UniProtKB/TrEMBL annotation:
Identification of the protein by name: DUF2339 domain-containing protein
Superkingdom of origin: Bacteria
Keywords of the record: Coiled coil, Membrane, Transmembrane, Transmembrane helix
Family annotation (PANTHER family): BLL2549 PROTEIN (PTHR38434)
Keyword Transmembrane: yes
Coiled-coil residue spans: 2-29
Source organism: Lysinibacillus pakistanensis
TM stretches of this protein: 82-102, 117-134, 146-166, 172-192, 197-213, 219-238, 245-264, 270-290, 302-320, 326-345, 352-374, 380-396, 403-419, 425-445, 465-483, 495-515, 522-541, 553-572, 592-612, 618-638, 650-668, 674-695
Length: 700
């Protein structure tokens, strides 16, 4: 036993020695680390000492203060927001339940009206005291205490209104004092508790007081002063705690309250209108102080600001309708919006400036509409004002104003076009119909001016071909104007629009000569499609033209001339071919084939129109139409051989086959001997000449 004890003791001593050795090694490493750190510090001090000696000689620069990092507040999750909102919802439910309970007790006659009012006030005081106790003892969440404070306010205001108006238990003056006390209490808790929903509740409930004042036969001006004072006091809470949502909601209900007061008192409409604009001015003052240009929600805030402006304009129009000089009030609103736009321009808030200047423009148009302007002057003035708005939006590069002013201008010129006629020729009605042509042309030229850089909206408009289609709209309105001239002065006998058709051909030919940077990318294709449609509809089939045969024939000749000119330009590689060389190089063959066929059909239609109008013998027209087929086939085959165009050659052979079929199966039986002889001589000569040319080309 003693031997085992001695072995254990020896083993323990050995383990103790090992532990001491490991401890010594650790101490040595620690001392070596400290000495290394001390040596490094000494070295740094020695290196920095020459710089310290030279420091007085060099210019001293103040050390930049470190910018404190802003602590990002953690965003609440959806569950946390729901949990925060539940107490407020349940408080409203509780208040409604209490009211219904009192109504039930009252219906059964258990409690008198006086007792119910006392119990309601007691409930209001109890909720406020309970919230204060929970807050001081730090029991319950802040959402609960805020809901209790808000519930006390709501119950107190509703009880005061019921006791004075419904039950007539307390005097109106005492009810007014109690209501104002509760409103002061509500504004105080809003300021202290910093809760936006509470601010909205207090504002909405406080705006019920004007109805009590109306019931007390107070002057409408006093009620208006109360609404303005309440709204102004709420701005201190809103600005202090940056409650933007509360700003929009309280502004909406304040403007609504002023409007209701105005509709209930028809004698002070002008004062109410100024009160409405005062509410809007106070709102915009707070909005400018709360607006943050770097916020990701800035577009939503600008949209709400614009919506409030439009809503105020709507209410103002309803309010000032019976007023004699209503345009003066609207002009004051124009000044208000222009002031906001000027402030936004100074602060370089492009979105806010855009919204405000658009509101000013809309209000100015509204002002002109309500002014007592002579009807003839108004016909010229309204399109001009709409045109001015579009030009202003282009000059200021205000995106929202571009959209709004363009819509207003479009509606104006559409209505203007529908109600005016170009008769008599020298009249204001005709001038009103023609002036939009100049307006559209100026807008297009101004929109096409080069810019150093494009905004996001301008890039989007460029990608959507908006400016390019503006050229199409301008041309379309001009053609529609020519169509109205046609209907009044030329197309009285028939429904054909000859002057418009001629102008379409001229514009299409002219557009081919203008570079794309001036005419846009969409004008020529659209005009080309309509030119082709009119060529097929007018140039081929004969039509009944009584009294204006010359105009119809002139239209056909112009279309034939344009087609021939285009074909010659493509063949000779003229100016039009050089402009569209990249697009035409691969499609010269089908383009020439289609052009020759259209030209042949147009000439054929022209010949038949002459016969239809008894200007040409019908037998001679049959011979000329056959000669046209053979001449067209000859030209197509000759050009295909010279230019080595396969599609054109097939087209020529096809026309030649059709010409032989017509000659053999139709012309021989329809023509007399003289015309038949002349026709065969002419066709034979043309055929021999063509054959000789083709054989000579093959031998070469």
């Amino acid at each position: 036993m003693s031997l085992e004890m001695e072995q254990r003791i020896a083993k323990l001593e050995k383990e103790m020695m090992d532990l001491r050795q490991e401890l010594d090694v650790l101490k040595q490493q620690h001392s070596a680390g400290q000495s290394t750190a001390i040596n490094a510090r000494k070295t740094m001090i020695k290196q920095s000492s020459p710089l310290a000696e030279q420091k007085p000689k060099s210019t001293s620069k103040p050390n930049p203060r470190p910018i404190p990092e802003k602590k990002k507040q953690p965003q609440q999750s959806l569950e946390e927001r729901i949990m925060w909102a539940l107490p407020k919802i349940f408080m409203v439910i509780l208040v409604m339940g209490v009211l219904w309970g009192l109504k039930l007790v009252s219906d059964y006659g258990y409690l008198s009206n006086e007792v119910k009012i006392i119990l309601a006030y007691a409930l209001s005081i109890f909720l406020a005291v309970l919230a204060n106790v929970l807050e001081h003892r730090k029991k319950g969440s802040p959402a609960i205490t805020i809901s209790l404070y808000g519930g006390a306010f709501i119950v107190g205001i509703l009880t005061t209104a019921a006791s004075a108006i419904l039950y007539e238990i307390i005097g109106l003056t005492l009810a007014l004092i109690i209501a104002i006390s509760y409103i002061g209490y509500g504004i105080a808790i809003c300021y202290l508790k910093k809760n936006e929903i509470l601010t909205v509740f207090v504002a909405f409930t406080s705006l019920l007081l004007p109805y009590l004042l109306e019931y007390m036969d107070f002057s409408a001006v006093i009620i208006l002063i109360y609404v303005l004072a309440l709204f102004t006091m709420l701005q201190f809470v809103i600005y202090q705690h940056k409650q933007k949502l509360a700003l929009y909601i309280t502004t909406f209900f304040s403007m609504l309250a002023v409007s209701i007061i105005a509709f209930m008192n028809t004698d002070n409409r002008a004062i109410m209108a100024f009160g409405l604009m005062a509410v809007l001015a106070i709102c915009y003052t707070s909005w400018c102080r709360l607006f943050n240009i770097e916020s990701k929600w800035k577009h939503i805030h600008v949209g709400l600001q614009f919506s409030l402006g439009v809503f105020s304009l709507l209410l103002l129009n309803l309010m000032i309708r019976p007023i004699e000089y209503s345009e003066v009030l609207l002009f004051v609103l124009v000044i208000l919006f222009a002031t906001l736009a000027g402030y936004g321009y100074r602060q370089k808030w492009q979105e806010a400036f855009d919204s405000a200047i658009t509101l000013a423009f809309i209000t100015l148009c509204n002002t002109l509409l309500v002014m007592n302007i002579p009807e003839k002057v108004e016909d010229l003035l309204l399109p001009f004002i709409a045109f001015t708005g579009v030009m202003m939006s282009l000059r200021l590069r205000a995106s929202l104003m571009k959209v709004v002013s363009s819509i207003i201008f479009a509606i104006t010129i559409i209505i203007n076009f529908m109600i005016h006629e170009p008769a008599p020729f020298f009249s204001i009605s005709h001038a009103s119909l023609f002036m939009p042509v100049i307006y559209l042309l100026l807008i297009y030229l101004f929109a096409m001016r080069p810019k150093e850089s494009l905004s996001v909206f301008e890039k989007l408009m460029k990608d959507l071909y908006v400016v390019d289609f503006l050229a199409v709209i301008t041309t379309g309105y001009f053609l529609a104007y020519i169509s109205k001239l046609d209907a009044v002065y030329f197309a009285g006998v028939s429904n054909s629009q000859h002057m418009m058709s001629i102008m379409l051909a001229v514009l299409f030919a002219a557009s081919l000569l203008v570079p794309a940077k001036y005419k846009g990318r969409a004008l020529t294709p659209v005009l080309g499609a309509f030119f082709l449609l009119f060529t097929l509809s007018i140039g081929i089939l004969p039509a009944e033209m009584q009294g204006i045969e010359w105009l119809h024939l002139l239209t056909r000749i112009i279309y034939i001339f344009v087609l021939v000119a285009l074909l010659i330009d493509v063949l000779m590689k003229g100016r039009i071919y050089q402009i569209y060389q990249q697009q035409l190089e691969k499609y010269v063959d089908p383009t020439l084939s289609a052009g020759i066929v259209l030209t042949m059909l147009s000439i054929w239609g022209f010949v038949h129109q002459l016969a239809y109008n008894n200007l040409l013998d019908w037998k001679l027209s049959i011979a000329l139409s056959t000669i046209t087929l053979f001449v067209t086939a000859s030209i197509a085959l000759w050009l295909s051989t010279v230019r080595n165009l396969r599609t054109l050659r097939l087209t020529g052979f096809t026309i030649l086959v059709i010409a032989f079929i017509k000659l053999i199966f139709f012309d021989l039986s329809a023509l007399d001997l003289l015309i038949r002889a002349v026709l065969f001589i002419a066709i034979g000569g043309i055929g021999l000449l063509l054959s000789g040319r083709l054989l000579r080309k093959d031998q070469e």
